[in-house]
Amino acid sequence: MSKYLLPLTVLVTASVPAVAQTSPDLAAVQRHLSDTGSMTAAFAQTDRNGQVLTGTLTLKKPGKIRFQYQKGVPLLIVGDGKAFTFIDYSVRQVQRWPINNSPLSILVDPTRDISRYAKVVPSTNSGVLSVEIYDPKHPEYGRMTMVFARKPDAPGGLMLQGWAALDSQGNRTTIRLSGQRFNMPVSDSTFRWTDPRRQGRTG
Predict the structure, then answer these.
(1) How far apart are CA 69 and CA 87, in angstroms?
(2) pTM for the model
(3) Cα angle, residue 142 at apex, residues 122 and 79 outer, rounded to 5°
(4) Which residue in 14, 21, 88, 91 has a CA-CA distance of 20 to 30 Å to 27?
(5) What is the CATH number of the domain that holds 84?
(6) Between 97 and 74, where is the model more confident?
């Protein structure tokens, strides 16, 4: 079992039911997601104990995402279009979750309709838009809040700043993004990974 909390308390979150909500802000988020074919960014992950890990996030639609952690952290998270794979090279552990069972699927699935499972969080800062993903019928799944900055030259006029995930035990993990770049060419080879369970192979 890994000693690290994932950006992804979110990985164990199941699909959220169809409770429709429509608003101009949700429509703007939908446009941002639709207009983002790829993204790269640096990320800083903070867990409940204040531990901070950094790394690089790479996204390519449909379905592909990679969290490459800083040197010395033996973790890797990769989405290959069908599942998220969590690899802990320190214990040679590999776990997989269906992409559709995670709210992060809204980042990699261009067909998702966020009005079915998301709501806008009221804010006094007009330059920031927050969207909460939560299933009240299954509080054990936790919740995630994604934060966007209004930026006219970003896809859909919004830039993803990061998200906070809160699991049912109250463990909070926060991801903050910086250096975002959109719709640049990304090779499919970026999403390959080495299986630590194979003898003679290392991460």
Answers:
(1) 11
(2) 0.82
(3) 100
(4) 14
(5) 2.50.20.10
(6) 74
